[in-house]
Amino acid sequence: LFPFIFHEGVEPTNNLAERGIRPAVQWRKICFGNRSDNGAVLTSRLLTATRTCWLQRRNPLEFLVDAITAFRSSIPTPSLL
Question: What is the mean pLDDT of the segment spanning 22-28?
């Protein structure tokens, strides 16, 4: 229940997670959300990919261009793992 007590380096709060989703919440607030379920799925995927690239210090635009190019060429898409 309290892993931060037993494991050094584990924070007792979820501030890191909340800071991670903040850009998505701000985007949704500014753009008044999505108009369809498909739009919500697309938005969540784009925001997830761009945030992951940011955390990995990768260029999100380059990643998205590479992913779209790979998909259209029927070759394996780049990984974020």
Answer: 85
